[in-house]
């Protein structure tokens, strides 16, 4: 379905290079100190404004794309899934097939965004950076699946995705904002916090990313579990 809609695939691969290209063109090279929030407010790293902005937008664009893709996979196939269930398929099987498709695209997007980011500056730990992007896509992909399972209307689903992804991954997790933000504890409870922290660690430091990986996976799993429960109850055949 995705490959037949060629314009969608063109947009998926053009949006990251446009976003990161604009960031690279418009931000300065001045070095700024940033709080490494997952290590406590006393841990600072000094990074150029351009590099930290590139990393931040790498997280944001991956989250945006994966959330919208997941929402589309669930909502566009709603009637098809109903027919498949009548033919004997289990709702969980269909949801897991959508998850498998999402993971393939997420890994592809993460590899592509990693390549673009590393083109603009040298990433310290390339493999950890890629895994962090995959986790970012997994968290927001599962969020998109949860919204798609809960909301049937396309416009309402898009608004719910835009609302959280834009506020969280597109704004509050920006280290430039976080350093001066009030109520930082609230920001730490949002879905993109741990993926963002793991990506910053992987890109610029040698700090362990194990805990941030674990919490990122748990956040995504909670969204996935919620989407499974809602999808199963809505799609199962009533006797």
Number of helices: 10
| Number of beta-strand segments | 2
Q: Give the averaged pLDDT, no decimals.
A: 86
Largest β-sheet summary: 2 strands, antiparallel
Low-confidence stretches: none
Strand order of the largest sheet: 1-2
Structure description:
This protein has 239 residues and is mainly alpha-helical. It has 10 helices and 2 strands; from the N terminus they run αββααααααααα. It has helices at residues 6-26, 49-76, 78-86, 91-120, 126-150, 154-172, 175-178, 184-188, 193-204, 210-235, and strands spanning 31-35, 44-48. Strands 1-2 form a two-stranded antiparallel ribbon. A hairpin with an 8-residue loop joins β1 (31-35) and β2 (44-48). The two termini are 32 Å apart.
Index terms:
single chain, 239 residues, mainly alpha, two-stranded antiparallel sheet, 10 helices, 2 strands
């Amino acid at each position: 379905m995705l490959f037949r809609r060629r314009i969608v695939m063109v947009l998926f691969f053009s949006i990251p290079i446009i976003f990161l290209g604009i960031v690279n063109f418009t931000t300065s090279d001045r070095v700024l100190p940033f709080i490494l929030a997952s290590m406590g407010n006393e841990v600072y790293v000094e990074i150029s404004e351009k590099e930290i902005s590139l990393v931040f937008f790498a997280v944001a664009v991956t989250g945006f794309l994966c959330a919208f893709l997941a929402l589309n996979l669930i909502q566009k196939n709603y009637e098809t899934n109903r027919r498949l269930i009548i033919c004997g398929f289990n709702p969980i099987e269909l949801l897991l097939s959508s998850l498998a498709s999402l993971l393939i695209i997420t890994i592809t997007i993460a590899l592509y965004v990693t390549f673009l980011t590393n083109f603009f500056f040298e990433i310290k730990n390339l493999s950890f950076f890629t895994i962090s992007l995959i986790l970012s896509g997994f968290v927001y992909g599962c969020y998109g699946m949860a919204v798609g399972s809960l909301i049937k209307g396309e416009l309402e689903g898009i608004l719910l995705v835009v609302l959280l992804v834009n506020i969280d991954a597109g704004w509050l997790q920006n280290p430039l904002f976080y350093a001066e933000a009030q109520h930082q504890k609230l920001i730490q409870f949002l879905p993109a916090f741990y993926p963002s922290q793991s990506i910053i660690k992987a890109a610029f430091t040698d700090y362990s990313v194990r805990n941030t990986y674990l919490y990122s996976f748990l956040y995504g799993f909670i969204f996935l579990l919620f989407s499974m429960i809602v999808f199963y109850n809505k799609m199962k055949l009533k006797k």
